[in-house]
Amino acid sequence: MTVDSIEVAKAYAYGAWGDLPIFCGDLINFGYWKELLDKSSDELITKQKKIESSYALYKYVLDKVKPLGNEVLLEVGCGRGAGAMYACQNYSFSKMFCLDMTTDQIDCAKKKFEKTPFPEKVQFINENITNLSSFIENIDIAFSVEAFQHIEDTEKALKRIKQTLKPNGKIAIATYFSKNIVEDSVIESIFPLVLKKQEAIKSITVIRDELEKAGFLNIEIEAIGDYVFYGYEKWVRQQNADPCSYVYFMAYERDILDYYVITATI
Ligand SMILES: C[S@@+](CC[C@H](N)C(=O)[O-])C[C@H]1O[C@@H](n2cnc3c(N)ncnc32)[C@H](O)[C@@H]1O
After folding, report:
1. Residue 39 domain-assigned (yes or no)
2. Is the dihedral of CA 56, 112, 170, 252 positive or negative?
3. 62 FRET partner, CA 20 to 30 A, in 31, 172, 252, 261?
């Protein structure tokens, strides 16, 4: 086994995705590259730029639901807390619940916040959103960055998120979904992580229906794949990393997959 494949195996086994060389800065997402990458340039992507792209994705999502001061936030799938830290440093809100089902990620996130000016502001919860038993309510803004592709029962998760929101609460979800309804067997044949039950990649149509069923209104869906897949693919190639990452770019090129930012209210 090469070092790379040992790290990949660990990531699959323990959810230690943040240890993979393709992710850095404790940020585990493909990134938003609109202002960061000139497609016509051969310039190499630096590690710093990859980190910036992941923060830019957080910025893009948070700007859609802009907290203005007194709001209570819930992040679903907070990973190692780097996005939560970015939110604390760049937006005003009163409190934030950060939820992740992977213990390693939550432990890492908690450690990150121990030595910051905001330890009281953020509360970490190690739970699966689908079966969330912690009593969380009166949330103004729920958001999620690149976690929904992992959730098997997205309908149940959306209903559970809705229960945490207060009247006029908002939701923002960013991740990849298939553009059309495709048979499970086809999705499994394209995406190795779906076959391994690490991802569930639903279609955007199904997610819209599930949002409606959960009682969300004013659903807006924006496809941002143009500013996600190319940069991430270039970075992954540069790292000479596990080729399983290439399938996302290929699926985007073949019009099967896109990266979406979804917002809705209740
Ligand atoms: C790709 S990482 C993204 C982490 C973080 N948002 C970021 O951008 O750095 C997805 C995270 O979602 C978490 N996750 C997946 N399914 C979940 C679920 N059902 N409930 C809570 N967390 C979940 C995983 O443990 C993982 O930390």
Report:
1. no
2. positive
3. 252
User: How far is the centre of ligand 1, averaged over its atoms, from the C-alpha of 215 (Å)?
Assistant: 24
Cβ of 20 less than 6 Å from ligand 1: no
The CATH number linked to 104 is 3.40.50.150
Cα–Cα distance for residue pair 64/82, rounded to 1 Å = 19
* pLDDT tens-digit map of 204-251: 999 999 999 999 999 999 999 999 999 999 998 888 776 567 899 999
| Residue 115 located in a structural domain | yes
> What's the domain range around 80?
3-34+45-265
> For residue 126, is it within any domain?
yes
Identify which of 28, 61, 160, 248 to mutate to test ligand 1's pocket (most ligand atoms within 8 A of the CB).
Answer: 28
| Count of structural domains within the chain | 1
Residue 260: closest CA among 197, 192, 196, 174: 174
pLDDT band at residue 23 using 50, 70 and 90 as cut-offs: confident
Kindly give the distance from the C-alpha atom of residue 257 to the centroid of ligand 1, in angstroms, as a whole number: 19
Q: Is residue 40 part of a domain?
A: no
Q: How high is the pLDDT of residue 121? A: 94
Residue 78 CA, ligand 1 centroid: distance in Å: 6
pLDDT at 3: 44
- Token pair belonging to 160: 């559970």
